[in-house]
Amino acid sequence: LSSQLSANGITLTDANGNAIKPPTAEDLKGAINVLLVGSDTRLGQGGSFGNETSTLADVIILLHISADRKNAVAMSFPRDLLVPWPACPSTSGGPGYLPQALGQINATIANGGPGCTLLTVEKLTGLKIPYLAMINFKGVIEMSNAIGGVEVCVARDIHDEYTLLDLKKGTHTLQGTQALKFLRTRHDVGDGSDLSRISNQQVFLTSLVRKIKGDGVLSNPVKLYSLANAAARNMTLSSSLTDLNTMVAIASALKGIELDKITFLQVPAHGGLPAPYSGRVKPTDEL
């Protein structure tokens, strides 16, 4: 497992291309910030997800675990969010780029890899984020299978001709390709925008956390290994996160937090932007 994790690791760099010093064991005793990225790449995913050639960060979630281990927050960033881009060297794929006053956040990965997405979120939030985990389509399928499916409740029927998701109103246990379809669907949910898709993702993740904690996965070495093994084969991790002791420390930090102290939020944003930004959103700074 350790070898597999290391093989999929990438080195995080600063805006000048210098490798970021990995966190120490002492750092892990404080607050923990992890950036979770869901890539829509079709490369190596088989032919069942279409022929799209671009690579975008379709899901961006910042996980913050408090230093006292009493609460955790997962903050979603809309994929269509327009934000300043800091200068970024290529971290994996793409040529890298100079700073930009405004750009769509999900395109940062196409121009310099997931490390550039991380630098952009750091600039936007003012936080240091030493850990990065990126999952692909197959990863969602395998991890949902490893956990035995996730139960979700939908308020009305969903019939999405794009993802081919077909769910009746009520409760469903989703795993495999059906779980992936649920996370990707937006055309028959809410107003059909990415903001509606974020709602689905947070419903799914809330239920996933509930099942992991309820089944004692974080304190059961056999179950935890099954989940970690699926992750190792299907995720790209920062080198700071490929160490097994680090992964165990983060799991330990989460296992004692009560469910009602785990909060899912979305970056406040608004639309109604003029051309050429119609259909995009910007962060709402005013409280």
Spans with pLDDT under 50 lasting ≥5 residues? none
- Count of individual beta strands: 15
CA-based shape? globular
Biggest β-sheet strands, sense, barrel:
7 strands, mixed
Q: How are helices and strands ordered from N to C?
A: HEEEEEEHHEHEEEEHHHEHEEE
Please give the radius of gyration in angstroms: 18 Å
Structural class of the helix and strand makeup?
A: alpha+beta
- Walk across the major sheet and give the strand order: 1-12-7-2-3-4-13
Strand content: 15-25%
Roughly what percent helix?
25-40%
Number of helices: 8
Mean pLDDT: 83
Q: Give the termini separation.
A: 45 Å
Task: Please tell me about this protein's structure.
The protein has 287 residues and is of the alpha+beta class. 31% of the residues lie in helices and 23% in strands. It has eight helices and 15 strands. It has helices at 2-7, 108-112, 114-125, 137-146, 177-184, 194-214, 221-234, 244-255; strands at 9-10, 32-39, 57-65, 72-76, 82-85, 100-104, 131-135, 150-154, 158-160, 165-167, 170-174, 235-238, 262-266, 269-270, 282-283. The strands form five sheets. The chain has a seven-stranded mixed β-sheet with strand order 1-12-7-2-3-4-13, sandwiched between helices. A two-stranded antiparallel ribbon has the order 5-6. Strand 3 (57-65) and strand 4 (72-76) form a beta hairpin. Helix 4 (137-146) packs across helix 5 and helix 4 runs antiparallel to helix 7 (221-234). The chain is globular. The termini are far apart.
